[in-house]
Amino acid sequence: MLASLFLLALSSVVSAIPVKRAQPTDWMQANIGTLGSRPLRHICIPGSHDAGMSQINGGTAFSDAANTQTQTLSIGGQLTAGSRYFDIRPVITDGTYSTGHYSDITEIDSWQGSNGQSIADVISDINSFTSANNELVIINLSHAYDTDAGNSDYPIFTQDQWDALFDQLTGINHLYVDPNPTTVDLSTVTLSTFIASSPAVVVIVQPDDTIDLGDYASQGFYQYSQLNAYNEYADTSTLSTMESDQLTKMAAQRGTPDQSYFLLSWTLTQSTLEVLGFGDSILELANTADPALYTALPPKLSTSTYPNILFIDNFQNDGKMVDLAMTINTNYAS
Length: 334
Ligand SMILES: *[C@@H]1O[C@H](CO)[C@@H](O)[C@H](O)[C@H]1NC(C)=O
Hints:
binds 2-acetamido-2-deoxy-beta-D-glucopyranose, TIM Barrel, globular, about 325 residues, alpha/beta, four-stranded mixed β-sheet
């Protein structure tokens, strides 16, 4: 009895000792000697799926944390943990901009979902991180819906709604403006060009055919085609199916490091039953998928074939994704 109590006490002391991280918070800057001269296409970075959804700030009747929460760390927490690519889905709710996670549930002919961190919070998280770290941060905007309209059919943003969002996002410090802002292929820009002397934030966006970036195209906002990624998720909740889907796609898309800029979409998607609450939550699925990456990916890596973005749910502050990205950057990429 006493012995087991002692062991219990000992194990809680042991688990409280912080894991030594191989890479510092500003891991890009710390490795600029190795990575600085490389274009983004020859670098691997960790990234966050549905990055704003670490909080649930209201939503529709059939949504809850189990079927909309994808992260447990805020954008600031994910930045500190090493993530550098953020899938941000802006919505309008109560007349303000927030992140959100919404889907059209065709079975009930209704849009369902929740709101995450506000866009104002996202901006201040990025600014406080870049005030202390000369790192590159990539923001990808998509799935923009006006949820103040009735949820039988959420409309996508109008030009005015996009413009007001862009205007708010110009509050991000250190937006990177390329000398050729409308024609540059960002995957060919070297890391030093972005962050040799300051932090850099790049926003990529593709509103749709009828909406344009206007003046924001020369203020740090770029079209998807300017960081043209292969980005195709498996759409399954089964780990082995997702693994073979993504590793097969990687092999096909990345025969050489100059082929597609490749996002490895290492996420599981809930089945309809899981969405309804029968089975694993999104975070539980992530806790299955994330550790599997450390064993499934390395055997498939070579100097010709490696991913550019390790894209996951539930990004943790244990240093492991950064370590994996840096292992790729050191042993395979050049
Ligand atoms: C940005 O998001 C869109 C929409 O999900 C996607 O099609 C595109 O590939 C993404 N870009 C990158 C660099 O991942």
